[in-house]
Amino acid sequence: xxxxxxxxxxxxxxxxxxxxxxxxxxxxxxxxxxxxxxxxxxxxxxxxxxxxxxxxxxxxxxxxxxxxxxxxxxxxxxxxxxxxxxxxxxxxxxxxxxxxxxxxxxxxxxxxxxxxxxxxxxxx
Amino acid sequence: xxxxxxxxxxxxxxxxxxxxxxxxxxxxxxxxxxxxxxxxxxxxxxxxxxxxxxxxxxxxxxxxxxxxxxxxxxxxxxxxxxxxxxxxxxxxxxxxxxxxxxxxxxxxxxxxxxxxxxxxxxxxxxxxxxxxxxxxxxxxxxxxxxxxxxxxxxxxxxxxxxxxxxxxxxxxxxxxxxxxxxxxxxxxxxxxxxxxxxxxxxxxxxxxxxxxxxxxxxxxxxxxxxxxxxxxxxxxxxxxxxxxxxxxxxxxxxxxxxxxxxxxxxxxxxxxxxxxxxxxxxxxxxxxxxxxxxxxxxxxxxxxxxxxxxxxxxxxxxxxxxxxxxxxxxxxxxxxxxxxxxxxxxxxxxxxxxxxxxxxxxxxxxxxxxxxxxxxxxxxxxxxxxxxxxxxxxxxxxxxxxxxxxxxxxxxxxxxxxxxxxxxxxxxxxxxxxxxxxxxxxxxxxxxxxxxxxxxxxxxxxxxxxxxxxxxxxxxxxxxxxxxxxxxxxxxxxxxxx
Lengths: 124, 498
Hints:
Chain A has four helices and four strands; from the N terminus they run αβαααβββ. Chain A is of the alpha+beta class. Mean pLDDT of chain B is about 75; it is low at about 110-135, about 360-400, about 405-460 and about 495-498. Chain B is elongated, with a radius of gyration of 24 Å. Chains A and B meet through α1, α2 and β4 of A and β11 of B. Chain A: This is Multifunctional methyltransferase subunit TRM112-like protein.
């Protein structure tokens, strides 16, 4: 699972959970996969991304290079920053691990990079 | 010289459009009819032809005759007519055609399958090829396909044999059934007789980058292209199955990030394998979830594309109407404003959607029965109407629905027609690639024939018509939240499972 995907995921489908966002990551096996750097893609994606959630997720995955607290318009020209964002969004791959709902504590397993977000009937 | 491509029923307009823009820009020389698109090109552009996305197979056209010349002939005269025309020297000694045949032979010798870079099909042991390559003679086989009233007058096998003998005398070619350099495909119908030479052995529609096939390549491409993706976009398939649609999207578009969701663990495993095989893992993320309760934020995706269950091969627990109601509601929630959704829906669901167009005053009936030209016209009409509509509702989303029915022509024509076709197929068993192209008669589709004969929006067992009516009204009210863009009717055929 890439952190770009994680950024969209929420557990608010669980009955009684309001936001369910962001899901915490309990990484089991994390790999770095090389992905071609496309600055335009990152620039266009940035406004659609919940920055604080990405920052937190990257930290949980042990991404040491660090991301700034905020990203403003003026920083979009900073190639070095875009590269770091690219790494965080697309290159970190959580192969095995768990996603945890911040409100209910419900765990969602990640196997072979595929998070299982299915719920039991009584949870919906 | 002339070429033609075969395309699934209803997809000809897309093939026509693609060929017009990619290969033949002269509007007068491109034409389509009856699952085929004819166009003008040359050997130098063969690579472009082999890159076409919307077609099944591509052929060099040797001969095309309109049925006006032969439809009243009796059995013997018809056979004579076809024989004379096909074995005319002029047709075969054409310079450009000779070039293409030479091209096919060279490529065959190189064992390049599919004309592109596909080499995995080893074929029979090399021993058998050696004399073939050595004497420089072109080897060929003839495949005939006769249908309709005219077709019944002639036996495919007899015709194939006679043409084969004629050609081997005329062109000094030799017959090779198993692995010929070129195949001569003759099709005789009530509207035309055509002779063509396929440019590839494997249909263009069978994408080399897909390991496990689902929906046919051209259909996945059409769905993708209707998404009209311009900028960087996230594309969601909420019921991705083997993820064949998203593979096509990820493989052919630069600026996309695809998200595939499915309930089924096994399907997701296949999807992951497909993704690895096509080398698009970086652009395609899979997760397991329920498409009616997606773990995604409101308005989080730019595009949605989906082949929804038809209730045949893939069915749903509740009725299709109820299922689509909750499904569409969820799509409405996760799709961004001004986002775009393209759905492939069953005839049953499409029939319900049609009800919502009635306020536009469009006569929707023509979608179902009339020729493609008319569909086009109405499509534009719907388009303009929905634009007026959009002025009143600022927060509108766009929907494209593709209506499809796997068994349309069969169910209309009844069983006689079907048996007839199956018989022809048996005659054709020699031309194995031919059967690969036209496959409405796999066990899978033929058993769905019966179910489709029951008609549209039929009442379910144990439900009153009032309940059904309510379910339909609910679906419509959800559907009407979207802005309707356009409508296409295609006949769906699935890939052979080998």
